[in-house]
Amino acid sequence: MEASNQDLPLLRSADGKPALCLVTGATGYIGGRLIVELLKHGYRVRILARNPERLKYHPWIDQVEVAEGDAQDRAALERALAGVDVAYYLLHALMSKDNFESQERTMAESFGEVAKECNVRRIVYLGGIIAPNEVMSPHLQARADTGEILRASGVSTIELRAGVVIGSGSASFEMLRYLTERLPIMTVPKWVNVRIQPIAVRDVLRYLVGAATINPTISGAFDIGGPQVFTYKEMMQQYAEAAGLRRRIIIPVPVLTPRLSSGWVGLVTPVPYTLAKRLVASLKNEVVAADDSIRGLVPDPPGGLTPFKRAVQLALTKIKDARVETRWSDASIPGTPSEPLPTDPSWAGGTLYKDVRTVHSPDSVEDVWKRVEAIGGDNGYSIATWAWQLRGFIDRMFGGVGLRRGRRDPNTLQVGDALDFWRVEEIIKPKLLRLRAEMKMPGLAWLEFGIEEDPETGGSILTQVAIYAPKGLLGHAYWWAVWPMHGFVFPSMARTAALAKKSSSKR
Description:
Mean pLDDT: 83
Strand order of the largest sheet: 3-2-1-4-5-6-11
Radius of gyration: 24 Å
Largest sheet: 7 strands, parallel
Distance between the termini: 46 Å
């Protein structure tokens, strides 16, 4: 967990109980961690979630209220904000392919209006640092517009503006990490010379928790930043030093356009092109705190704000120890399939292709489950992992998420986890794992593993099912185009999951 905020005061409701806090964006990187911090501090917490099923395995789920609904649905907002003291607005449409700025404005307007009607005492919003007298990127402009809309709602609003957030699992940190670790020598765009004031995620969480108790007469935007300012180039060198790497050779090249830079970042890092494009566009703007007045309202933690190298070391330790609580990829990605596995009645008369593989294993259900649950990421898929890597590369070429998202944890999964270009849709341990494909394709696809005890041998039976629902003629053509690979990829994957090394299959 991140640093505790127990030294901060606790806001209480009119009845003397700890204040009720609504957290939006609960499946996102900051939202998932903020929930933990608020609970540790003693607050009552309610979350607004489109798909509560995705949260059922989080350790805090039994300690929070869940309001089901979409933030773009006014009725859902009214239910979620009823009786709330502090509302944390952590919503954005950054991964939407088109017109994300308009979506963000509409969401903020509705949220502010309903919060006012529900007599919410305070809105806390996490935005981005705005460089004065600079033309802002669309991403930063949308962040600034959102803050302005919320502040104009009539509800006391604290807008916290952060630059690059350093923490295990953040998109900005992953971009920095992969660029620095994978490219000891690199030609880079001129934006690497722009100044940035990074901040550790633990300090962001402290400001978010502390904002709840700021005097309600105070409403406004406050920059938050760590104790140091670097250029992005210097930050990469500082990261290399903190990670024990050799000094990087970094050569700025002015001819690299934002479009080319985004494609380059999308290829080298796990961050998909759509997100990379908007993050890169924002890096042309200086993100340095204009003032530090927030430190007079939310005091520094004991020992002070976290230095950059310390933040990097903490993040890398969490990655190494597989203790990454949330990742940027946890959030739903607009434009990727979200439909549940179709049932036969709803698909009557349609085509549903299936590839079914069954392998008998001498191992117990529990032992086979461990191998199934560890699939993907650095663990790979089978002897044919290269084929999945090729598919992931093709996916990124077409703007998809590819394989580089990896896994949150090398051994365990929970509903909602991103796993390479899959999303964990269902888990019933140790019997069922269902993955939904988020790769680019003309149709919908799932990969399901079912495990049951073999009554004849006392071992187990693994049934692996690949399911594909084509869309249009192109969808059917896609299935038959990749069909020759199925005979190689799917049997290999099933055997790898079912059988320990040196075991043999009884088919």
